[in-house]
Amino acid sequence: MINAERSPTFYRFDSTEQLQVWRAMDAADEEPVVIYHSHTATEAYPSRTDVAYASEPNAHYVLVSTRDPQEYELRSYSIVDGVVTEEPVEVVESYMFAHTGSDDIPDRG
Ligand SMILES: [Zn+2]
């Protein structure tokens, strides 16, 4: 996962690391599924800068706000051609239970 620099109004990637990640994804014929970063002082909603830099129409842009340490704030959006659409986020006990039957036993291996 790409680690973005924390800032209330702007974030950027380490350019060398970013290039390596994108080249590796390209070589493996992969594309980003989730791109996330945090807002330390504002709500978990894409800023104008976030929208301007959003270039992956198939990605889920996840924003975590840490403005209030007592509040849990995580939201997900698709951003296509400058249009922000919030996506529902379901928090589950484990990934496996979210995608298998309720009688399944979690894999401890
Ligand atoms: Zn942001």
Can you lay out the helices and strands and say which pair or pack?
Elements: H1 15-27, E1 34-39, H2 48-53, E2 60-65, E3 74-80, E4 83-87, H3 95-99
Parallel strand pairs: 1-2
Antiparallel strand pairs: 2-3, 3-4
This protein binds zinc ion (ZN).
Zinc ion binds next to strand 1.
Largest sheet: 4 strands, mixed
* Helix-strand string: HEHEEEH
Helix amount, in percent?
Answer: 10-25%
Low-confidence stretches: 1-8
User: What would CATH call the architecture?
Assistant: 3-Layer(aba) Sandwich
Rg result: 16 Å
How would you describe the shape? globular
Structural class from helices and strands?
A: alpha+beta
Strand content: 15-25%
What is the name of the CATH superfamily?
A: Cytidine Deaminase, domain 2
**Order of adjacent strands in the largest pleated sheet:** 1-2-3-4
Number of helices: 3
CATH topology: Cytidine Deaminase, domain 2
* CATH top level label: Alpha Beta
How many domain units? Answer: 1
What hetero molecules are in the model? zinc ion
How many angstroms separate the termini?
23 Å
Beta-strand segment tally: 4
The residue-averaged pLDDT reads: 82
Description:
With 109 residues, the protein is α+β, with helices and mostly antiparallel strands. It has one domain (15-99): Cytidine Deaminase, domain 2 (3-Layer(aba) Sandwich), CATH 3.40.140. 22% of the residues lie in helices and 22% in strands. The chain has helices spanning 15-27, 48-53, 95-99; strands at 34-39, 60-65, 74-80, 83-87. It has a four-stranded mixed sheet with strand order 1-2-3-4, with no helix packed on it. The protein is globular, with a radius of gyration of 16 Å. 9% of the residues are buried. Zinc ion binds at residues 11, 37, 39, 47, 50. InterPro entries: JAB_dom_prok, MPN, VirAsm_ModProt. One of its GO terms (biological process) is proteolysis. Keywords: Hydrolase, Metal-binding, Metalloprotease, Protease, Proteasome, Zinc.
